[in-house]
Amino acid sequence: MKLNDIGEYNLHKWLSKTLLRSDLDPVGVGDDCAILDLGTSDYLLLTTDRVAPSAYLRSMDYAGRLCVVQCFSDVIAKGGRPVGILLNTYMSENCDLNQWQSLILATQDHARKFGAFLIGGDTKQAREETIVGTAIGLVEKDFLLSRKTARPGDVIALSSKRKKKIGVAWSYFIADHYKLVLSDEVMSDLKSSFLEDNLLLPFDETRAAASSGAVNACVDTSDGLGGAIHLLTDGAGFGAEIIYEKALALLDDRISLVSNELKVDPLCFAFTPGFVWENLFAIEAEKFEAVRNLVIATGGDLINIGRITESKGTTMRFADGEKRNLRLFYNENFTGGDWLDRLPTRWQEHNLFE
């Protein structure tokens, strides 16, 4: 048996059942971060992530900033605040010095935007360039969020950092990947949003929501909205009902430029294999509006898209009351083929409904 016979998420399940649990670990492995209780008022949060090589092609500056986002996203999804990042760089001896320095300085600069510091790391010679970050964070014990504790009846809500809509980043990636015939002005606009959205996180929004005490579960959307729904429900042993009109309302109007060209249902842009740096929450239904008001006060928003259900699986409910089984699409590793080879084609050919 090979890894692609079972996929990434089943590897996670095996790890959560197999790894020994430290006496300092209050929840066990299998969440967005490792969590340690060192006897203070805060939990220590630890997580690590590799930057995809495609990011280096844009620039080392961009790769450094994306490394911060990838690592800090997990900390923030726990309700935490990042305090530091370790950066491991494996570079060939022919790597340009200015480029390497640009990577370091960009990582430092972007970490500071979240109140954290670049505090160390490792540098080694290697044939292929590889960048790995390790984030360190803290979370007040009353603020800690888990991906595994959603309850039936909870509102499923997506953060909206700075009240931004989703879908543009993936629209640009797909338009560029397939070399769609769009004007230079349109491509420049999509690219600008792609680069900006990929470097923002719902930090203030999530901290505000966590402070309410009404959030039962939270997971980041780094694997896409579909992946987040899967993780939020599978971890708790329940299901989800997503409201069609509310899912469509998440989307930026500009995606129509790409969906029309590809002849793809616009709803597909709500269920992409990543390129969405938000958090998905399960919130006590009767307290949702109060939590949303806390988030709005930060300049962001919290969008109700459905609810947690007793029955497993994910359904989509339409305005006329019809319900259809929703086939979630998301970025799961070890499912065959290279990322760039498999995901765009699979996404375009994916049938959302059974």
List keywords for this structure.
single chain; 354 residues; alpha+beta; 60s Ribosomal Protein L30, Chain: A; Phosphoribosyl-aminoimidazole Synthetase, Chain A, domain 2; seven-stranded mixed beta sheet; five-stranded mixed beta sheet; 12 helices; 12 strands; thiamine biosynthesis; thiamine-phosphate kinase activity; PurM-like_C_sf; PurM-like_N_sf
Strand content: 15-25%
Secondary-structure arrangement, i.e. CATH architecture of the largest domain: Alpha-Beta Complex
The tally of beta strands, per DSSP, is 12
Would you identify the CATH H-level superfamily of the largest domain? Answer: PurM-like C-terminal domain
Pfam family, one: AIRS_C
Domain PurM-like C-terminal: 152-316
Organism: Afipia clevelandensis ATCC 49720
Keywords: Kinase, Thiamine biosynthesis, Transferase
